[in-house]
Amino acid sequence: MPPATSRFDATEQGLAATSRRHPGFPRPAATVVRLVKLLYKLTTDHGNERMREHGLTYAEYNVLMMIEASPDGAINPSQIADAASEKSANVTRLTQQLVDKGLVEREPSPHDRRMWLLRLTEAGRARVTALIPDISAVLLAYTRHLQADELEQLKRLLAKLLRGVEQAQ
């Protein structure tokens, strides 16, 4: 059972009540899913707050980081949509915002003239470089209560949970 937190207490109480009313209800599984959902919401809200200081949304930051992390420094919008589990329309909107901010440029794919590649501009690379210390501090703050082996175990368990969710769909 997770430590009591004011944000999670009501959810935990609700899951306990559901479990009492429905003995077959998988409360531990529901608790994990709800914790993941809460973590997503809190990190997204906090990410938006932090990125606002840099003139970005959290979603724009994620797109910048996906482009930055691509092996040859360029990625097509479909790859971003797949990796981020975003709709194509959202990726189009986000990339247009980043193009408008001068952080990303589009170029035709050398392999498929119908496809565009996205690449960081010099300003985009500078923005990513400026973001790394801030985002690194945030990530370390999020995980400061976990030992290295616990963090590794959590990573393995979440990856295992992800595989289960993907297979269930």
TrEMBL record:
PROSITE patterns: HTH_MARR_1, HTH_MARR_2. InterPro entries: HTH_MarR-typ, MarR/SlyA-like, Tscrpt_reg_MarR-type_CS, WH-like_DNA-bd_sf, WH_DNA-bd_sf. Residues 1-26 are annotated as: Disordered. SUPFAM superfamilies: Winged helix' DNA-binding domain. Residues 32-163 form the HTH marR-type domain. The keyword DNA-binding applies. The keyword DNA-binding applies. One of its GO terms (molecular function) is DNA binding. GO terms for biological process: response to stress. Gene3D superfamilies: Winged helix-like DNA-binding domain superfamily/Winged helix DNA-binding domain (1.10.10.10). This is MarR family transcriptional regulator. It comes from Pseudoxanthomonas winnipegensis. The lineage of its organism: Bacteria, Pseudomonadati, Pseudomonadota, Gammaproteobacteria, Lysobacterales.
